[in-house]
Specification:
InterPro entries: GH, GH_1_N_CS, Glyco_hydro_1
Radius of gyration: 21 Å
GO molecular function: 6-phospho-beta-glucosidase activity
Mean pLDDT: 96
Family: Belongs to the glycosyl hydrolase 1 family.
Bound molecules: 6-O-phosphono-beta-D-glucopyranose
Distance between the termini: 13 Å
Strand order of the largest sheet: 1-2-3-4-5-6-9-10
Keywords: Glycosidase, Hydrolase
Protein name: 6-phospho-beta-glucosidase
Number of domains: 1
CATH topology: TIM Barrel
Largest sheet: 8 strands, parallel, barrel
Structural class: alpha/beta
CATH class: Alpha Beta
Helix content: 25-40%
Low-confidence stretches: none
Length: 469
Amino acid sequence: MKFMWGAALAAHQCEGAWDVDGKGVSVSDILTSSKHNQNREIHLDMQSDVYYPSHEAVDFYHTYKEDIKLFAEMGMNSLRISLAWTRIFPKGDEEQPNEKGLQFYDDLIDELKKYDIEPVVTLLHNDMPLHLATAYGGWKNKKVIDFFSHYCETVYERYKNKVTYWLTFNEINNMLKYEYQLLPYLSGGLILDEEDADEGEIYQTMHNQFVASAQAVITGHRINKNFQIGSMTGFILVYPNSCNPLDTIETFPSYRNLFFCTDVQARGYYPTYIQKYWERKNIQLNTTEEEMQILKDGVVDYLGFSYYMSETLSASKDVEKKKDAAKILKGVNNPYLESSQWGWTVDPVGLRIVLNKLYERYQKPLFIVECGLGAIDEVSEDGKIHDDYRINYLKNHIEEMQKAMEIDGVEVMGFLPWSAMDIISASTGEMRKRYGFIYVDKDDDGNGSLKRIRKDSFYWFKDFIKEQN
Ligand code: BG6
C-alpha cells in the first residue's frame, strides 16, 4: 500500500440516524451538548425536550454518497471510519446480527472502493451499546469481551474481502483519565463518580479491553492473514517544565499511562513499572494464564495514534497551572507554544518527537490516524471559509512528520487528519469546534441546513495530495 493520505471520522460523530434501521442506543446517544470546560451530562433517562447531538450529527448515514464524492474530489486515497457496534448488535449481547446495519457498512465501504479510497476501520470508537454499560457494568465485566469478540468475528467475516486495515479500540488509554468522567464512560461504559473512582476497577476494565483487543488481532489474522490490525492510543506528548531532574520524574506517570498501553499491545505483556505501581497501590487484577497468552499472541501489526497537543509538567507547586484546557491538560503553560481556541497546545515539532519515541521503542509501522485543529470557522461574505489557520496547522505537522520519516528513518503508514468534514465534537458535542475540510451548516443547538461547503483547506489539501503522487 502506498502512503495513505486521507482523513478520519467516527460513526457517532457523523452518522446520526441514531435509531434508524434497527440501530440500538449507544453510550454516546444519551450525552447532552456542552461548552468548553463544561461536562456533557449522561442522561440515562432521555428527555424529549433535550438536544442530543449524536441523534442527527451531520446525517452522514443518509449523505455518505455525496460526502464520499467530495472526499474523492480532494484526492484522498484512504478514509478512517468506525463501525457503530449498535447498528450490528443493537444491545450488544444478541446472537444474531442486524442485517440492515451490516448492509449499511457494506454499501458505505463499496462506495469508498468505487473511488479507490481504502477504508481504515475502527472497531470501537466511543459508542459501545448502552445496554452493555447499564446491564453488565461496561468493560469491567469480562462477559463484554465475549460480546465484542462475537461482534468482531461477524464484521471480519462480512468485510474480509473489502477491508484490510483495522484499528481495535480508539484511544484505549483514555480510561486512565478517569478524573474526567466522560472519558471512562465513552471508552469503557463506566459511569463513575468523579471524586471516587476505584483505580483497581479502571485497570481491570483496561485489562479486559487489552484481552479483547488482542483476541481481535488473533481472530482477524485467522480470518484473513493479510489483515493489518493496529492499536490506537491518544498521544499527548509530555515535557518537563525545566532541566530540574525532578520535573522529568514528574512526567513519568503521564508517560507510563501512555506507554503502558502501547507496551501491552505492541509487546504482549505488562511492563514492570506498572506491576510495581499496582503492588504499591495494592491493586490485584483478575487475570488468567490464558488471557496472558492471548496478550502475547495478539500483538498488533502497527501502532495507530492520535496527536493533537503536548503538555508540560512541573514538580513545583509554585508554577501556575494551565487553565484553559484543564479537563485534559494537567500541566503548566508552555511559553514556546500557542494554544487553540479550546486551550489545546499546538506543537508540530512534538509530532516528530512522538514518532521517534514510538519507533525507537517498538520498530513497528506507525499510523497517524488523527491530528487536527478544532477552530471556529466563519462563512465569509464571499460564501467561502478562509481557514488558513487550519492549513498552517496541517502543513506544519506534515512537515514534521516528513522530517521524522526522511531524517530519522521512522516508518509511517499514513496521515489521516481529523476530520474529513465538520462533525460534532466528542468532548463537548459542539458543532462550532470544527476540524473538517468541508464545512457543514449546523449550529450548536442543532439548527442548520446541513449544506456542505468546501473550505480553503479542502483546496489546499487537494493540491497537496496531487503533488505527492
Ligand atoms: C479524539 C477522538 O480524542 O479527539 C475523537 O478520538 C475526537 O473522537 C477528537 O473528536 C477531537 O476531540 P474533540 O473533543 O475536539 O471532538
